[in-house]
Amino acid sequence: MKKNVLVAGIGQANYIMQLYGEIAPKLPGFSFNAFNLKDFGDKQIEVQAVSVFNRVYFFKPDLKNILTLSRAIVPVLLNRYFWKDLTMYIAEKGNIFSNGGLRLFLRHVNAYYYANFIDRKTDTDIIHLHFPKHIFALFLKYLKKDYEEIWTYWGSDIYRIDSWIDHEIQNSSLDSVDLITMATPEMEFTLLSRFGFQYKYKIRRARFLHDSSYYELAANLISNSGWEKGFKTDFNIPPEKIIILFGHNGHFENNHIQFLETLSKLPENIANEFHVIFPFTYGDHKKGYLQEVKKISEEISTSFQFIEDFMDWEELAKLKIISDVYIHCPTTDGLSAFLTEFLYTNNLAIVGSWLPYNTFRDFGLYYKTFDNFESLREILISLKDNIKITADHRSSNQKVISDNFSIDKISGEWVRVFKEFEIKPIV
């Protein structure tokens, strides 16, 4: 008899389907089902999801419906965790009579209906929760049935806990979680430091899969570089300059403005040598952030390019390959897929030393680090020499990634996690 796994939480379709599409065939003792995949209304996503999962559930209560709201009032008011949340909210905000107070109540209504749906409409044995922040984990407080639980941390769900409700939803739930997966030892240490070392025995190391199609494509493009001149022409990338790729999205946590301030302090003759490319295809949650970055860049002698339209796999691979340097310095991160893909090119990556990347170092990957933006300035002043000096050190990065970040190797980590939940045969 198979165990039914319900995949819940952040529901980011590209990562979720890639992971389970790889491990589900290797785990015949389990049936994998998805709950509220993001972008499920997209026909292509639907087709892929149905091919990966045994069942795909999509349920959103209509919170504009008075009857829907009224039916949830009593269950929410009887839920102890609602009052705990409310107390924390009042302590943080001072009162409940605000849009935030209403949003908190509606979030609990949503959680009640999600839990009710899971209890009544799914035949679930194990809940695999991704990204256990308050917004995704709250439904657990309304479940009536008992389930085995796996929690998977992605990075910012442990590094960027910036409110009491996000802290407490984890603090009050970890005792009932059966296993916790994390990609790096630094993430593990952060969780244990925050919530207690009694959870160490529950933690398993499991990294996220990387799409093998990128590496196959990149390997072919690196071997046959005749396309580079045409690509630079098509995207108006100056061939005579040092190409710097900075950040991987438009979130302000990537520190674009701090980087621009660093560039502004460079001697003009050095700044003129660079062409900086900012990928802004998603992010920009802070309204007007892109315009702010563009305005500041106009005062600097470096040439800039902002990529705002989504690129396909081949264009992304080519962009990484033609970039001489990639600078990666978000406030926090888990184990960046974008950085891993760039390292595969054997080009020079420059990374903030505060990021938890000992896993990369342990495997033998080479990249330069900087402690703050003043030390980044020193690296940029000598960037042309740095590129030459580090060439031999970087030359083995591609092989290291091929050997240690393969789908077979990483999927094996996940298979071992689920095998701990297998139904043992009666002897």
From the structure above, extract its key features.
2 domains, Rossmann fold, 13 strands, alpha/beta, 22 helices, 7-stranded parallel sheet, 6-stranded parallel sheet, 427 residues
Task: Compute the number of helices.
Answer: 22
- Read across the widest sheet, the strand sequence of neighbours is 3-2-1-4-5-6-7
Topology, number of strands: 13
CATH superfamily membership of the largest domain: Glycogen Phosphorylase B
Write a structural description:
With 427 residues, the protein is an alpha/beta fold. Helix content is 47%, strand content 14%. The chain has 2 domains: 219 residues, 3-Layer(aba) Sandwich (Rossmann fold); 193 residues, Glycogen Phosphorylase B (Rossmann fold, 3-Layer(aba) Sandwich). Helix 2 links the parallel strand 2 and strand 3. It is built from 22 helices and 13 strands. The longest helix is centred in the N-terminal third of the chain and has 23 residues. The radius of gyration is 24 Å and the shape is globular. A 7-stranded parallel beta sheet has the order 3-2-1-4-5-6-7. The two termini are 16 Å apart.
